[in-house]
Design a protein that fits this description.
Helix content: 10-25%
Number of domains: 1
Shape: globular
Number of strands: 4
Number of helices: 2
Mean pLDDT: 97
Low-confidence stretches: none
CATH topology: Alpha-Beta Plaits
Distance between the termini: 7 Å
CATH class: Alpha Beta
Bound molecules: iron/sulfur cluster
Largest sheet: 2 strands, antiparallel
Structural class: alpha+beta
Length: 61
Amino acid sequence: MPTPVIDIAACEGCGTCEALCPDVFEVVDEKATVINPDGCDTCDCQEAVDSCPVGAITLED
Ligand code: SF4
């Protein structure tokens, strides 16, 4: 299962990733954090990657 990684400098805090994968991402102080890197089996982390407006999320094996 790939693990999501956030480019904090690029993140704009829009909340899209949290809306798609609330078990994986949480936006705190306008920056997304990965609260559960193993949680991509609960949602579509690839959709979060594809939906991030600034391309700040990558999936690492
Ligand atoms: S979708 Fe991208 S820009 Fe928006 S909060 Fe998540 S990581 Fe940040």
